[in-house]
Amino acid sequence: MNAPDGNAQVDAIVARARAAQKAYEANGSQARYDRAASAAAWAIMEPARNRHLAELAVETTGLGNVDDKIIKNHRKTLGLMRDIAQARTYGVIAEDDETGITRIARPMGVIGAVVPSTNPAATPANNIINALKCGNAIVLSPSPKGVPACEVLLGYIHAEFDKIGEDHDLVQMVPAPGSKDKTQRLLEISDLIVVTGSQNNVRRAYTSGTPALAVGAGNVTVIVDETSDLRAAAEKITASKTFDNATSCSSENAIVVVDAIFDTFMAELARTGGAHVTDEAKIVARLWPDGHLNRAVIAQDADKMLAALDMTGEVPGNTRFLAVETTGIGPDHPLSGEKLSRVAALYRARDFEDAVAITARILAYQGAGHSVGLHSSDEARAIALGQTIPTCRVIVNQAHCFATGGAFNNGMPFSLSMGCGSWGGNSIDDNLHWRHFMQTTKVIREIPPREPKVEDIFAAYWEVAGK
Q1: Beta-sheet pairing, 438-444 with 101-107
Q2: Residue 228 and residue 381: Cα distance in Å, rounded?
Q3: Peptide bond before 177: cis, by omega within 30 degrees of 0?
Q4: pLDDT class of 198 with cuts at 50, 70, 90
């Protein structure tokens, strides 16, 4: 039986990518891989093209805002290029005389990358750069609204490829119009899948039969305790919550404030543009008018968000986001989940221990594994969170959405995709980065034997349990 037309299209694209990748690897070098990655990076970072991509992304998806997307495209790509500058991804990358093992970098092959509409340029660019740096070809499957930005981005990359004589087929996308069937076919015939976006796509990736790197859902909760710098905490939370109109999975969705400083903190939050709202029922009714998130609110500027929620005259004129006080957590309380808007749930905790318990309940409902934030001057509390909460990241005293995916003032790899470990149903617990796009061959040589005596291994155990 002949494959459906959509499948045939995807098959043909992947076949071209596979041929290009084999030639890329066969005639590869670290210099070539680095040059191709630089070409893809400059394609999105060149200021005029960056602006065009940002404008196109907002125009076609209706999500976020242009100025912040320009910043995101620039900083995420610049940070990634910093991270990979000295990375060795071609040929012999390590030799260990003690173990007798030589490690040789090898590409994965053809990467199939499913990318979301929230970041239709920055996320694919990140994946493309990582893929090229490690000797791979890549085929993108953008969300329907992300197709125009992906098409333009690929055009820019191919123009840069022309300058260096590189093969266009190394970077391709599933042809428009996109469909679940085409995406599914890409998942099935790629050598490695990278999925950022809907949890439906994540589940499909993990059941496709192809090795998959997929990331979990965000529902970031941050704790503000009585030892924190309240002014700095308010400024950082506001900056993070409002950046690109809360399109980031690392945007704060819940703020848990210790009772002792609740009023003082809310005054600081009001100063920075966070309006304290106590009419939870009104917000819920208008944010989920038919059980689904109101599209007039999702990732919109503050004025449009307030108008859609009929809150324009009910909050101060400087309002940049809403902090809606609630106690509810779980499926019957949608405010406790991810909102993709300038709306955060606000919880009052008796003390730090209660704040931790509230945070744990929120993550048990949604967002386990992704990340939590802590504004505190007590280092022991950060460690305690890391030992008790089901999360892969504890972001301390930072603007959360800037810090989680890598920042110039912290040590996380620059990325737009956060692995959430077993808590989030993921195979990785790190930020998706270049090392995930490479595998190694090990050359193993004989070395002098290192066989221990049985008593050396079990002496301590025997002292406790006997033989």
Answers
A1: antiparallel
A2: 11
A3: yes
A4: confident
- Decide: 344 and 218 in contact? Cβ < 8 Å: no
Backbone angles phi, psi at 322, to 5 degrees: -110, 130
Please report, for residues 31, 65, 90, 206, the alpha-carbon distance to residue 439 in angstroms, rounded to integers and kept in the order given: 19, 38, 11, 19
Tell me, what amino acid is at 12?
A: A
Closest by CA to 226, choosing from 269, 273, 263, is 263
What pLDDT score does 360 carry? 98
Catalytic residue among 150, 249, 392, 420: 249
Is residue 249 annotated as a catalytic residue, yes or no?
yes
Structural tokens at position 243: 């950046």
Q: What is the mean pLDDT of residues 434-461?
A: 96
Query: Torsions phi, psi of 225, nearest 5?
Result: -105, 180
> Is it the case that residue 422 has pLDDT exceeding 70?
yes
- CA distances in angstroms from 309 to 313, 323, 337, 446, listed in the order given: 11, 13, 18, 70
Q: 417 and 123 in contact (C-beta within 8 Å)?
A: yes
> Which bin fits 194, alpha (ψ -120 to 50), beta or left (φ > 0)?
beta
Express each pLDDT in 91-127 by its tens digit. 999 999 999 999 999 999 999 999 888 899 999 999 9
Spatial CA neighbour of 131 closest among 248, 296, 17 = 17
Tokens at 219, concatenated:
């529902």
> Could you give the angle at the alpha carbon of 422 between the alpha carbons of 126 and 180, nearest 5°?
55
Report yes or no on whether pTM surpasses 0.85.
Answer: yes
CA distances to 75, 221, 328, 387, 404 from 358, rounded to whole Å, are 33, 9, 10, 16, 21
Distance between CA atoms of residues 434 and 455, nearest Å: 43
The token pair at 114 is 């499913």
| pLDDT, tens digit, 9 for 90 and up, residues 213-248 | 988 889 999 999 999 999 999 999 999 999 999 999
For residue 363, the one-letter residue type is L
User: What is the pLDDT averaged over residues 267-293?
Assistant: 95
